[in-house]
């Protein structure tokens, strides 16, 4: 029987053809861009519509974009006009000279204050293999935020195209996800946080909650060594809901398992010590697994249907969003 890791490479390489993704990267004029700048997660409205640069940066600085490999950025405060700002935007590290605000501008500073970007509800999305940001979970984020007066999302940043090492992608996601969640919670202590992962992203979310580390798959590669969050201290005590779809570390018969794949393991179930720590958040988790999904239910009897690993958000977006909104209002 093929491993989950092998299946992910094969299945998700063709995922766009099987289930076209309507949620492209947020590059449209007026969309919100989220970045980690000097260790702080911030977001701003995109006011640049040009095509010359690889990443979306404010119009006032687009002509001075330089890679940090060519020009290491000083550590001076990013909010000071004339200093370099270093950012990780959709996995690409760039730096530019801050010349915002211009003398005649009454707009916000280049690095918004906490009051300008904190939301009552903030989602963290961990994407599946070979997905663009935010991937299929963009539909879930839209549904959760629908009707809420103060709600947005950000992507947990990691590189995971077809053929890229699974474990390296998870390890990067573990580290970035942990840091992003801690940074947002510190800046926005009153925000309610929602974590959601799909496919490979479930490995990342599970590691953030329960701690990472250990081998995965037939290659026995070592994956993330991130620390576990605690539900009693920040940022763990700000988490209101967690959703997992097509879990690559699915464990049978957990109280939060839903759908007819609940009774089946994947071939690389989460280690008991990690599971115990993760289960401290059990009342906040919902883990969706279809019994025909060849990833989360691989140890089940099948028959397996590839499409049922790819179409969770076609089938369960409204159900998951309603459950999350219920947790937010509890």
Features:
330 residues; alpha/beta; Rossmann fold; 2 domains; 6-stranded parallel beta sheet; 4-stranded antiparallel beta sheet
Overview of the molecule:
It is a single chain. The chain contains 9 helices and 12 strands. The chain has helices spanning 4-13, 15-18, 114-117, 138-145, 166-187, 200-210, 272-278, 307-310, 312-329; strands at residues 32-37, 40-45, 84-89, 92-97, 121-126, 151-155, 192-198, 215-216, 221-222, 239-245, 257-258, 285-288. The protein is an alpha/beta fold and 330 residues long. Helix content is 27%, strand content 18%. Helix 5 packs across helix 6 (200-210) and helix 6 packs across helix 7. The protein folds into 2 domains: 4-24 and 114-329, Rossmann fold (3-Layer(aba) Sandwich); 32-97, no CATH class.
H/E series? HHEEEEHEHEHEHEEEEHEHH
State Rg: 20 Å
Write the CATH homologous superfamily of the largest domain.
Answer: Alpha/Beta hydrolase fold, catalytic domain
Mass-distribution shape: globular
- Strand ordering within the main sheet: 6-5-7-10-12-11
Give the overall pLDDT as a whole number: 76
Query: Could you please say which CATH topology of the largest domain applies here?
Result: Rossmann fold
DSSP strand tally: 12
How much of the sequence lies in strands comes to 15-25%
Domain count, please report it: 2
Question: Which CATH architecture of the largest domain would you pick?
Answer: 3-Layer(aba) Sandwich
Percent helix range: 25-40%
**In CATH's first tier, which class of the largest domain applies?**
Alpha Beta
Cα(first) to Cα(last) distance is: 43 Å
Q: pLDDT under 50 segments (min length 5)?
A: 14-30, 47-84, 97-115
